[in-house]
Every structure is written in structure tokens, then in C-alpha cells.
Fold:
Amino acid sequence: MAVIYEVDRGIATVVLDSPENRNALSAALVGALTDSLAAAAEDASVRAVVLSHTGSAFCAGADLKEQSAEGGPARGTTRMLELLRRVVELPKPVIARIDGHVRAGGIGLVGACDLALAGPAASFAFTEVRLGLAPAIISLTTLGRMSERAAARYYLTGDTFDAAAAAAAGLVTVAVPDLDAEVAALSDALRRCPPQALAETKALLAAGVRDRVEAAAGEMQRLSQRLFESEEAREGMRAFLEKRPPRWATGP
Structure:
């Protein structure tokens, strides 16, 4: 089972539970996550959703092995776009609880959430550029969250950054030493709010992200497809799967 779903006193907790592939966005995980979000949307007792994870990774992004087996990124990018839409349009606030590694498409998922709490073990990297790609799809949910300078810093280098840097950049709401205590406090605050008010307030807050997804989804999907089909990307993904530096790498 790729996802665990539980409801406690009005808060649905959705746990990504595929640690063997670092919670990568496989068809199975995305399908199970979509089903869980639909269940939360339809449950009148649920006020908010906490999106958490098992293992040392919150989400490693696209499942590159699966994309290779599928003959390219088209199916994966379509799944990713639909998942981002589902999170953004969900009529309940979604809180990301992050205490592990977040890479590439996983950061797009964080950006789609309304609130994001990062613990001491959290780390982030837009790794696309090091594979010969660009963070095309996930720019839809992250560019509006981050400052322009921070986005340029991390998009262009693929460097890893910690929870404090993610909070300073605007990617996450807050970096905290006691993640569970912060999630509990935020959940209690949301329990004190009625469903209609939460739904309408979320819609107000998510309007910018929703509009960006609708306006540029097709363009970003085409860009992603073009880059995946390039020789640079083929070499980058071969190198990643073979655990070696790509031919163009000249640094450490």
C-alpha cells in the first residue's frame, strides 16, 4: 500500500508510504494519494489534511525508472499536473509535514500545499537542472511561493538547501525543531474553524496558484516533454540511474 489514510477529530492524515523508492511519484503512489485526497474532500467531518511521509524522504520526485518503462515523461507529467490540481483545488487546507529529503517533483507537491512545516531532517533540491532538464511543471506551484532571487539561486544550481533556507525563501511556512508539536498546534487551530469558512478562505489563498496552473500547464508540459527527449536529458538520466557523473560535469 503506497499511502496510509487516517482521520482523527476532523484532521485527515495522508502518509506517503513507499520508502523503497523514496516516495517517488509512481503511478501507484499518485493514484493512491489522489484517492485519499478525494476521500478527504468528500468527508464532511474533515477540516484539513496533513500530508506526511514514512522513511527518510518526503518525496523524491518523478519515478525515473517508471518513466523509462513508459517510453517517456508524457504519462508522468500528466499525472503530476492532475495531482497538483487536486491539492490546489481541494476544498480543505493541506499541510505538508516534512522531515526528510524533498527533490524535484516532490517540491512541486510542497508548493501546492497551503501550509508547509519542515523539521530538522528536511532538505530540498531542484535537481532537474543537473539532469539536463528544467523545473517546468513544478514552477507552477513554486515560483509564486519563493522570492525571485531564491528561485534563481536554487533552480539554476540544483544545490541542496535546508529547512531554514527553505523558510527564508518562502518555499515552506516555517522551519521548526519539534515538527509534531507544530503540526498538532496548527491542527488544533484549524479544528476551531468551521468547514465553509476554511473552504472559502483556502479558495481565496489558492487563486493565484490555481490561475498559474490553468494558464501555463500546457506550455510547461510541452517544455518538459521537449527537454526529456533531448540528448542532454538522456545522458543526465542514464548517469543518474548508473550512479555516475554525466559527461558534461566538470566540477566536484
Observations:
- The beta strands are 3-8, 11-16, 48-53, 57-59, 94-98, 101-103, 115-118, 123-125, 161-162, 174-175.
- The domain at 3-177 is CATH 3.90.226.10 (2-enoyl-CoA Hydratase; Chain A, domain 1).
